[in-house]
Amino acid sequence: MSEVDSFFKSAFSVDNVIFGFDGSDLKVLLIQRGAPPFKGKLALPGDLVYPNENLETAAERVLEQLTGLRGVYLEQVKAFGAVNRHPLGRVITIAYYSLVKTKDYTPMPASFAQVASWHTIHHLEELAFDHNQILHNCLLQLQQRVRMAPIGFELLPPKFTLTELQQLYESILETELDKRNFRKKILSMNLLEDLNEMQAGVAHRPAKLYQFDQERYKQFVERGYSFDL
Amino acid sequence: MSEVDSFFKSAFSVDNVIFGFDGSDLKVLLIQRGAPPFKGKLALPGDLVYPNENLETAAERVLEQLTGLRGVYLEQVKAFGAVNRHPLGRVITIAYYSLVKTKDYTPMPASFAQVASWHTIHHLEELAFDHNQILHNCLLQLQQRVRMAPIGFELLPPKFTLTELQQLYESILETELDKRNFRKKILSMNLLEDLNEMQAGVAHRPAKLYQFDQERYKQFVERGYSFDL
DNA sequence: AGGGTTATTGTTCATTGTACACCAAATAAT
DNA sequence: ATTATTTGGTGTACAATGAACAATAACCCT
Q1: Complete DSSP assignment for A156-218
Q2: A125, A148, A171 — which closes off a domain?
Q3: Number of domains in chain B
Q4: Which of A42, A133, B126, B209 has an alpha carbon 20 to 30 Å from B15's alpha carbon atom?
Q5: Nearest residue to A221 via CA among A159, A154, A169, A137
Q6: Does A179 contact strand D, using a CB cutoff of 7 Å?
Q7: Which bases in strand D are touched by protein, i.e. have an atom under 7 Å from a CB?
Q8: Domain containing A76: what range?
Q9: Cα–Cα distances in Å, from B176 out to B64, B170, B179, B192?
Q10: What CATH number did the domain enclosing A168 receive?
């Protein structure tokens, strides 16, 4: 094989860190590999990129095949390309993360042969390939991003309570926040609309329900902000 | 050509946005392409990644071949992989940016056939491939990064004045800063050491020279900070 | 009716950000 | 030598933001 030919003995893939929030913890959607290498191990969902497919399209395809979801938040993080990261050849992978509302997620039975399931981010077992490293990098990026734009809302159902929102931020940022200060800050942004509805069926004082103001939300995503907590 | 084969009719490259600072403006090092496609156009320095070469190693190699510099600040930004971004085939590229002290830069005559030269970032002409887009993304990342860690120092000579430092931040962030507030903030970090030396040969009151405290610098790079200006 | 659980609300103090103007020290020009 | 020109260096008052902190309200369950 000539030098020039060997430039083309390579492929690229996408891997997608799909984050979800179950109301109290940040989760990631992992598949169990059904074939070697790393058969039986947990891994990030991913696939080779088709020859005529854009990278982002490939990431969207992986997401849709696994969850049936389209049009969700998706962001590239970076490329991982260590020479020996894939045992079968030179494969560099482009890492994406996406944010999904777990309630929208309908398991796709036949799409991937593999079983997909939610796992808590922290204290995670060893994953296939360099996927622990990829996951860690994506989490760092999410933590940074959530301070710059209100993307955390992508993980919540349309109606939510302030406590749910706070728990989301706490689980993303891995920190505890002061309840009163959090509320003061988030409400002062005029990003939330009070729905004048209450939780029902809870065995304690019911909380108000909010949704976010779509216009303000777009502004914040585009212009960014500094959300120090 | 079968579907499977066509997965391997692809290649990946690195492109390096090399930033420099001439004392008043942020610059980027561009080459003039000596061969098609885009012959004669300005482009980012880049190259295909060798089969047994890590991505970062490739970026370092491109930088060294062009400038003779090793061990300078280098950071991956993201991958660019639109299907038709390269007219000769499917080539995705991984973008890096690096920060160099222009005084250290010794032009490499024979290394690349192309001519390399510094260009001001703003009001840049049209570059080859999607390099305008890549450059723009790298600049955005630099702007974010410089607020989180003191990496701006990588662009300055070992001894510098506070005014030079301020002009660096102003040219990176494309904004004007208040002199007194800037000095108050930067000095309060205990990141700078007063060298008890003065500028010489300037036609005005000479400024004090500073260097940065290596220990503090490392701490800030690792732990990060919030540098709101 | 009372216990359990979570929701909601405001003030004080410390810290940080922001706006702003004058004198000092060097060279250059006359 | 005097003056002009240029950039360096410094402090204060006010506003805004961040941080710490605890008592009452509303629902369900028994």
Answers
A1: S-SSB-HHHHHHHHHHHHTS---HHHHHHHHHHTT-EEEEEEE--S-SSPPPEEEEE-HHHHH
A2: A148
A3: 2
A4: A133
A5: A154
A6: yes
A7: 5-12, 17-22, 25-29
A8: 3-148
A9: 34, 6, 9, 21
A10: 1.10.10.10
Q: How far apart are CA A8 and CA B121, in angstroms?
A: 34
Both structure tokens of A53: 């497919």
User: What length does chain B have?
Assistant: 229
Residues A229, A182 contacting (CB under 8 angstroms): yes
Query: What is the C-alpha to C-alpha distance for residues B54 and B57, in angstroms, rounded to an integer?
Result: 5
Both tokens of residue B154?
């990588």
Mutation pick from A8, A54, A173 vs chain B, by most beta carbons of B within 10 Å, is: A8
Q: What is the mean pLDDT of each run of 10 residues along chain A (229 residues)?
A: 51 97 94 92 96 97 93 97 95 98 75 78 93 98 94 94 97 96 96 96 96 93 83
CATH number at A50 reads: 3.90.79.10
Mean pLDDT of B155-179: 97
Asked if A227 and A169 touch (Cβ cutoff 8 Å), the reply is no
